[in-house]
Amino acid sequence: MLNHLNYEPVIGLEVHAELATVSKMFCACPVVDSTREKPNVAVCPVCSGMPGVLPVINQRAIEFGLRVALALQCEIPCLSIFARKNYFYPDLPKGYQISQYEKPLAYDGRLMISTPKGEREIRIERVHLEEDTGKLTHITREGESYSLIDLNRAGVPLLEIVSEPDIRSAEEARVYATTLHSLLRYLGVSSGDMEKGVLRIEPNISVREKGNQAFGTRVEIKNLNSFRALERSVACEIQRQIELKLQGQPVVQQTRGWDENRGETVLQRIKEHADDYRYFPEPDLPPLFVSKEWLEQIQASQPELPIIKKYRFESSYKLNQYDAGLLTAEPAIADFFEQVVNLSPQVAPKQIAHWITGELFGLLNQKGISINESHISPAKLSELICKVNNGEINQNIAKSVLEEMFVTGKSMEEIVSGRNLHQISDSRLVSELVTKVLRENPQQLATYISGKDTVAQWFFGQVMRATNGQANPQVLNRELNKQLLKSKGEHLTAKREL
Fold it and tell me: Using CA atoms, how far apart are residues 122 and 1, in angstroms rounded to an integer?
């Protein structure tokens, strides 16, 4: 009898990324932040679809697309063609979208992803350029419903990256998407800001019996704008389709949306086929020619890619895969880490990595800001870590100081001096403090001498409390052990003499 374990999902992802160009794809209108700018301020006759206007290809957008295609190890033909994708929707001013179809910018690429089961290669079907649509805002007020349209986004360069159906779980879908997101940011071609709709993801999902190589009927989920929504919606849709299979019902090819509040996918429309769009070559644009020399120039200017940087961090800095992955997920974080390493030659890179991925990441997550928006610079963190290594402040005080630096922007020295937090490493002073604590707690000392060694930790805590946590732990441990052993020895001597 069939059950859930007899089925496997087959998933492919379409990722749409707005490119970080100055102007739009086919006109000179500026690319503006549609979430902040007033509606319809970056619009001209071309991007508003006026009759008789002629589009012109944005060379910078082509270059950005080629950067991505090279990084994904795609085949890049010397000739690609723009096409008209015909469909009517209120946010599409011309009544068609200029895209690429039969002859895209690039095809047949690959992206390596790291999963708990090891590295996996996900094949890339195609990379092509198109223009974005406008933005609709639906309003219901006093029993009246209407929609407003903002064309600021219409015509913004959009790069679509389509994977082959190689993904086999919701978790893998998320890893693929985050890996591609990181790549786009490293290349500097897109901000990838999903909250602003700069990057949108559309998974195509089907299920089939394990061992069956034929594809099932696929369902597309539209316009997901977070990795969490991607993973949850894919998992939900897999479950929905398996339930239909188990009940003997067909899976219908359709487009669905994700309802975050209900935690389920919802029907939007029956899925269109490519024929429904009536693609044909864009008559107002010539074929796009990419020369070998231009490709070589772009390849020579490519930055170090995240997967290469991750391998380098593991080998050069002796980091484990997990830490290297965290530190190379964002270019700003990787740069921050390497700056701290260069400023702190006497500190092990692994120790620096733990300060960044532990303490600093915790503060950044609480505040909800990026590492570049923080008061903590590489120089400030380096100074703090070096003070710990030099024994001037201890670990716990350093964490407290880091938090105050993060909140107030004050320097480490201001905080340490102002609160008198310098570590007490004077062995004579520490010895006097230990002697005082042992003398004031004879009962606990007797318990230790009788064989309960864990009392030593209690004494350690008492001295730390007396110094407001400023005693050097190494110096304190050494002196405490010395005096406890001496007390135990004196007790045994006195016992023998009796």
Answer: 32
The rounded distance, in Å, linking the Cα atoms of 333 and 370 is: 9
User: Nearest 5°: phi and psi at 323?
Assistant: -65, -40
pLDDT of residue 30: 97
User: Which pair of tokens denotes residue 375?
Assistant: 């008061």
Tell me if 244 is assigned to some domain.
Answer: no
DSSP-based three-state secondary structure for 384: helix
Determine which helix (DSSP H) or strand (DSSP E) holds 439, and give its type and residue range.
Answer: helix 427-440
* Collapsed DSSP state (helix, strand, coil) of residue 376: coil
**Is the same domain home to 33 and 153?**
yes
358 DSSP 8-state letter: I
Give residue 338's domain range: 304-418
CA atoms of 491 and 341, how far apart (whole Å): 51
pLDDT at 1 (0 to 100)? 46
Q: Is residue 487 part of a domain?
A: yes
Task: Give DSSP secondary structure letters for 299-343.
Answer: HHTPPPPHHHHHHHHHHHS---HHHHHHHHSSHHHHHHHHHHHHH
Give me 414's structure tokens.
């201001």
51 and 168 part of one domain: yes
Dmax (CA) for the chain in angstroms is 114
> The domain spanning residue 453 has which CATH number?
1.10.10.410
Q: Distance between CA atoms of 348 and 358, rounded to whole angstroms?
A: 16
Residues 91, 144, single domain; the answer is yes
Q: 362: burial class by Cβ within 10 Å (0-12, 13-18, 19+)?
A: middle
Tens of pLDDT along 430-441? 787 778 878 888
Q: Where are the alpha helices (H) located in 344-410, listed in sequence order?
A: 349-354, 361-367, 378-389, 395-408
What is the C-alpha separation between 462 and 454, in angstroms, rounded?
A: 13
Q: Which of 389, 418, 447 is the last residue of a domain?
A: 418
What is the crossing angle of helices 455-466 and 442-449, to 10°?
Answer: 150
Residue 228 domain flag: no
* Structural domain count, the chain: 3
Contacts of 489 (CB under 8 A, 6+ apart): none
Task: Please work out, in degrees rounded to the nearest 5, the angle formed at the alpha carbon of residue 97 by the alpha carbons of 34 and 68.
Answer: 70
Going by pLDDT thresholds of 50, 70 and 90, the confidence category of residue 456 is confident
Residue 337 has a pLDDT of 97
- Output the pLDDT for position 376: 94
Distance CA 335, CA 340 (A): 9
